[in-house]
Design brief:
Elements (H helix, E strand, L loop, with lengths): L1 E2 L9 H11 L8 H4 L14 H13 L3 H12 L7 H16 L4 E23 L10 E3 L6 E9 L5 H7 L7 E5 L12 H10 L4 E5 L23 E4 L1 H13 L4 E22 L6 E7 L9 H25 L6 E7 L7 H8 L10 E6 L5 E7 L6 H13 L19 H4 L5 E7 L20 H20 L10 H10 L3 H6 L7
Parallel strand pairs: 4-5, 5-6, 6-7, 9-10, 9-11, 11-13
Antiparallel strand pairs: 1-2, 2-8, 3-7, 4-8, 8-10, 12-13
Helix pairs in contact: 3-11, 3-13, 4-9, 9-13, 11-13
Bound molecules: zinc ion.
Zinc ion binds next to helix 9.
C-alpha cells in the first residue's frame, strides 16, 4: 500500500504539482521515489552553518515525542513480529506517524521472507537416569522447525571453528553445547549463526547456546542467516542449565538428552515502511531502523529505541523544512525495516531491488539506528576520510548543547541493516550511543522492556542524527565516494568481517 503526499504545506505549489506528476498520484507506483527521474530543481548545495545545526538540535529536543510514541509502540503494540498482527500494527503505526509529521512521501515496499513464530521447546536428560540438578530452561532459536532428537551432548566451549574441529568425530551425531560469545583474545566476536553452521557441517544433530551471564536470562536469535530453516534443532539455554549439563558431563559420559522443538514457519510477505523529504538532486541520504523485534518482550532496546529515534528525527526534519522553507539538496529518506531479526530480510530486499538498474548509486550515505541510547559520538564505517565532514557536524551539535566525543569512529561490523549497503560500498555513517546499565544484555530476552531504555537519551540521539542527516543532505561535497567492487572487499577485510561473511557464504571476493 502506498499513500500520496497529502501534507506538504511548505512545498511551493509548482514543485508540488511536479511532484504529483512525477509520482503519478493518486496511485503512485509501489517503488515511486527512486524512480522519480528528473530532479525538481538543480541548485548548488549549501552547507548548513553550525548555528543552523545547533538550532535544529534545540528545536528537536523541545518538541520531543519519544515518550508519547513509546506509549503506543512499546506499551500498546509491544513485541513486533514480522507478518504477525503485532508486526502489521507496528507498520501501520509508523506509517501514520510519518504522515502526521508532514513527511511528504510515505509508502510501503513488500518483500517475501520465511516467517517464524515460537511454539514449544523442551530438554530432558535421558542418561544418567537421575538427570541433572535443577530445571533445564530453553527457548528455541529462530528459523528452527519441529524436531525430536535423542543424542549425547558434547561441550564445544564457545563453538568456534577451532573448538569444533578439536572435537573431531565426537560432534557427529551429537548435540553441541556452546557458550555465547568468543574465547578471550579471539580477536572478533562469533555470531550464533556461524556456530550453528559449523556444528551442522560437522554432523551435529542439535545445538544448545548457553548464556554467559548468571540469572534466568535466555537470549534468543535467528539460527541461520540464509533464507532457510535450520537442519537441526537449535535452542538457547540459561547459564544454570548449561552448567548443570556440563556438571553431568564432568562426572560420566555419555550424557544423553532428548531435545523437542515445535515452531511455526511459513513463506509470507511483509512490508518495509518508507518516507522521504524530497531533495533537489537525485542523490539520497537514508536513515533506517528495524521495526521488528523478538517475540519475548516489548523489544524496547532492540529496536524500539531505534524506531523511536527515526520517528523523532523524521518529525524534527519535517518541522525544520516547514519552519525554514528550505528544500534539502539531497533527498532524506526514512526506512523502517521488517524481517531484520530473521536475517535482515527487509534491508536486503531493498538493496537488491536497487542493484540491477544501479539505483544504488544514488545513495550518498546511510545511517542505521539499531539499539539507541544517549549519544556519545559520530563515525563512518571504514572511512577515515569522513572526519572533516563529521567535525563540522560535531561543532553544530555542540552549538545545540550536546557535547560528543571529539574522536571520530571508523569501526564497523555486520549483522544489522547497514550490512547490505556496506556490502555495496555505500558510505555508512554512525551515531554511537550508550545504554543505561540496566539495559546490558537484555536484547533478545524477556527483559527487553520499556523501563530499561533511556527515553531522553533517545531524544538526544535523534536530535544529533537529525543534524547529521541535514548536514549530509546539504553538504556541497561529503567527501565520501562509493567504493569500487574491489575496494569493498579490501575495506570489509580491514573491518574484520571477512570470516563471518565467508561462513555465511556471502564473501564474493577472492
Ligand atoms: Zn536489532
Amino acid at each position: 500500500m502506498s499513500s500520496c503526499p497529502v501534507e506538504a504545506r511548505w512545498w511551493p505549489v509548482w514543485a508540488f504539482a511536479l511532484l504529483l506528476l512525477a509520482s503519478g498520484c493518486a496511485e503512485p507506483p509501489e517503488d515511486l521515489p527512486d524512480d522519480a527521474d528528473a530532479p525538481v530543481v538543480e541548485a548548488a548545495p549549501e552547507a548548513p552553518t553550525s548555528q543552523e545545526l545547533g538550532a535544529l538540535v534545540e528545536r528537536s529536543l523541545e518538541g520531543s515525542q519519544v515518550q508519547v510514541n513509546a506509549d503506543t509502540l512499546l506499551d500498546v503494540i509491544g513485541a513486533r513480529v514480522s507478518a504477525l498482527p503485532s508486526g502489521d500494527s507496528a507498520e501501520a503505526f509508523v506509517e501514520r506517524r510519518l504522515e502526521a509529521y508532514g513527511v511528504p512521501r510515505v509508502w510501503r515496499e513488500s518483500f517475501p521472507f520465511l516467517a517464524w513464530d515460537r511454539r514449544e521447546a523442551s530438554l530432558e536428560v535421558v542418561t544418567p537416569e537421575e538427570g541433572v540438578e535443577g530445571e533445564l530452561n530453553i527457548l528455541s532459536l529462530g528459523h528452527v522447525g519441529s524436531y525430536e532428537v535423542e543424542a549425547p551432548i558434547v561441550d564445544a566451549g564457545y563453538g568456534t571453528a577451532e573448538e569444533i574441529e578439536a572435537l573431531g568425530d565426537a560432534v557427529d551425531g551429537a548435540i553441541v553445547l556452546a557458550d555465547v560469545g568468543a574465547p578471550e583474545g579471539y580477536g572478533r566476536g562469533v555470531h550464533r549463526t556461524e556456530k550453528v553452521t559449523l556444528a551442522t557441517e560437522a554432523g551435529a544433530v542439535g545445538f544448545i547456546q548457553v548464556n554467559t551471564t548468571e540469572g534466568p536470562r535466555i537470549p534468543v536469535g535467528v539460527a541461520t542467516l540464509g533464507d532457510e530453516e535450520t537442519e537441526l534443532p537449535a535452542v538457547a539455554a540459561d547459564r544454570a542449565s548449561g552448567q548443570a549439563l556440563r556438571g553431568a558431563l564432568a562426572e560420566e559420559q555419555p550424557v544423553m538428552v532428548r531435545l523437542t522443538v515445535d515452531n511455526w514457519m511459513e513463506r509470507a510477505e511483509t512490508d518495509n515502511v518508507l518516507g522521504e523529504i524530497p531533495g533537489q538532486s537525485d542523490e539520497i541520504i537514508l536513515v533506517g531502523a528495524h521495526l521488528d523485534s523478538w517475540d519475548l518482550a516489548q523489544g524496547a532496546v532492540d529496536n524500539g529505541s531505534g524506531t523511536l529515534a527515526v520517528l523523532e528525527l523524521a518529525r524534527a526534519l519535517a518541522q525544520h523544512v516547514d519552519d525554514t522553507g528550505e528544500v534539502p539538496y539531497r533527498t532524506i529518506r526514512f526506512a523502517f525495516w521488517m524481517g531484520e531479526e530473521l536475517g535482515l530480510y527487509g534491508s536486503r530486499h531493498y538493496v537488491e531491488t536497487r542493484l540491477d538498474d544501479d539505483r544504488i548509486q544514488r545513495y550518498a550515505a546511510i545511517l542505521n539506528l539499531d539499539v539507541v541510547g544517549d549519544p556519545v559520538g559520530l563515525g563512518a564505517m571504514g572511512r577515515p576520510e569522513a572526519e572533516p565532514f563529521l567535525r563540522q557536524v560535531l561543532t553544530g551539535v555542540a552549538e545545540g548543547g550536546i557535547d560528543l566525543d571529539e574522536a571520530v569512529g571508523t569501526r564497523g561490523g555486520i549483522y544489522s541493516d547497514h550490512q547490505p549497503f556496506l556490502m555495496q560500498g555505500v558510505p555508512v555513517l554512525s551515531v554511537r550511543s550508550e545504554q543505561r546499565p540496566e539495559a546490558a544484555g537484555v536484547s533478545h530476552t524477556i527483559h527487553d522492556t520499556r523501563d530499561v531504555i533511556d527515553e531522553p537519551g533517545i531524544a538526544r540521539s535523534a536530535a544529533v542524527s537529525a543534524a547529521l542527516l541535514w548536514a549530509a543532505a546539504n553538504a556541497p561535497d561529503l567527501g565520501l565516494e562509493r567504493w569500487s567492487e574491489e575496494e569493498i572487499g579490501r575495506r570489509l577485510e580491514e573491518l574484520g568481517v571477512r570470516d563471518p561473511l565467508e561462513r555465511a557464504g556471502e564473501w564474493r571476493w577472492p
